[in-house]
Write a structure and sequence with these properties.
Low-confidence stretches: 421-429
Distance between the termini: 14 Å
Number of strands: 13
Strand content: 5-15%
Radius of gyration: 22 Å
Mean pLDDT: 93
Structural class: alpha/beta
Strand order of the largest sheet: 3-2-1-4-5-6-7
Number of helices: 17
């Protein structure tokens, strides 16, 4: 099959959407399919054999100059004007403007592809793609409605609440597009349930397809660093629960020699840095970011335990990656995290989201029990081996592609499906 994969921002370090795109596109290519990624900035890291078509935006949120004012010569068309104007009134324009740009590109190349795959853009332009004659399938990792609720609930500033509601204004569009999507793939039963509830999508049009873990995530070959605790999360995003972890760590730090490593880049002077100063733990907390894949694996394997304090996750790929490194876990009983780690105490201790006391008690108990940490690590690695394979993900996604293409062509009275034979369909399954 010839696949156009569409993603408005796709660099792996921007989050799970970029990781999903990179590994899925590689494994689809390894299965013999042709994949071309259409992406806005920041552009993805792709493997050999996967083609990239850049769909440049004004890149208004780039580092080190976020919320920048472009020069007049940078404006190319009305979509650029809309993008800048939306930012100026505190909105987030990228899903809508990317979808408009990519629909315009696809219109010129409809015959080059058998299917288009929307990686949680959910912009109005996606609805135009099927009108052009190309079937569309959609991935929704989780509904961003949860991010909005948590962000707004955790700010007391009325003006900040207003600007946050403006920022998340794109969710109305995403809900409308999701309700009209032909088929939605999502990585967990939790996400499926929440997409149905918050976006009003018929569960019969959704399919749960687990995510994979890259083969490079393996248990360490050297001893772990005593007292080292690790967490991977956006430091200043309230939904990631880092404040809970910092307060729990501060309690433990008064009586133990501990180090906390946060794989994140905090906002200078942001809420996380302020809380670290308030708790007087700056000498024991270290931030690490922009590390290579191999260094990240080494870091994951160096910790005695890791924490996932999120208030919600649609899957939590870092949790599965830590399990692959045989790192024992203390995690929130939130969103899809229990689905990823399995029964309480097997690969992780599950605690109440946002409960500082529970987190501190669970971390302390696990630090005091090296035999249980070792058992947890082995169980986590075994669970990853059994459930989380990118090759298996790609084969299941390819089967979903074939079903959508067949359904699309049947609706239009077409009998021949280009690029798909009975043999390839069976092999993809």
């Amino acid at each position: 099959m010839r696949v156009a994969m569409l993603s408005y921002r796709s660099k792996p370090h921007c989050g799970g959407q970029g990781i999903y795109l990179r590994h899925l596109s590689r494994e689809l290519t390894n299965l013999g399919h042709t994949v071309e990624v259409f992406s806005g900035q920041p552009y993805p890291d792709l493997d050999p054999g996967v083609r990239l078509t850049k769909v440049p935006s004004l890149d208004l949120y780039r580092e080190p100059d976020p919320f920048r004012v472009p020069k007049l010569k940078e404006f190319r068309d009305r979509i650029d004007v809309e993008e800048f104007a939306t930012m100026c009134v505190a909105g987030f324009p990228e899903p809508k403007t990317f979808s408009s740009r990519v629909a315009r590109l696809i219109a010129e190349r409809v015959d080059d592809f058998d299917i288009a795959h929307d990686n949680q853009v959910l912009g109005y332009g996606m609805l135009e793609i099927e009108k052009l004659g190309l079937p569309l399938i959609t991935t929704v990792h989780h509904p961003i409605t949860f991010d909005r609720r948590i962000d707004i609930s955790q700010t007391r500033n009325p003006w900040r609440k207003f600007t946050l509601s403006r920022w998340y204004g794109f969710l109305r569009m995403q809900g409308r597009v999701a309700r009209r999507a032909r088929k939605i793939m999502t990585p967990s039963e939790t996400s499926k349930r929440d997409i149905a509830k918050d976006f009003g999508v018929d569960p019969a049009r959704m399919q749960v397809i687990l995510l994979g873990v890259e083969d490079s995530f393996v248990p360490p070959t050297v001893p772990r660093v005593p007292g080292r605790i690790l967490a991977m999360a956006s430091a200043d995003a309230p939904m990631k629960g880092i404040a809970t972890l910092l307060e729990a760590f501060a309690k433990l730090r008064t009586e133990r020699d501990l180090e906390l490593i946060l794989v994140s880049k905090p906002q200078a002077g942001g809420r996380t840095e302020k809380l670290i100063d308030k708790l007087s733990i700056g000498d024991s907390v270290r931030f690490v970011h922009s590390v290579s894949d191999s260094d990240l694996v080494d870091l994951m394997g160096s910790a005695e335990l890791a924490c996932v304090p999120s208030l919600y996750e649609g899957f939590s790929l870092p949790t599965a990656e830590l399990m692959a490194c045989a790192t024992p876990l203390v995690v929130s009983r939130a969103g899809a995290i229990p689905e990823v780690v399995g029964p309480d105490g097997l690969c992780a201790d599950l605690v109440t989201p946002g409960d500082v006391g529970e987190f501190a008690a669970a971390i302390g108990a696990l630090l005091d029990d090296p035999e249980r940490r070792a058992r947890m690590g082995r169980a986590g690695r075994q669970r990853v081996d059994e459930l989380f394979s990118w090759r298996a993900v790609a084969a299941t996604v390819a089967a979903a592609y074939a079903e959508v293409i067949t359904d699309f062509r049947r609706e239009r009275g077409l009998t021949q499906t280009p690029g798909i034979t009975e043999e390839t369909t069976v092999a993809d399954r």
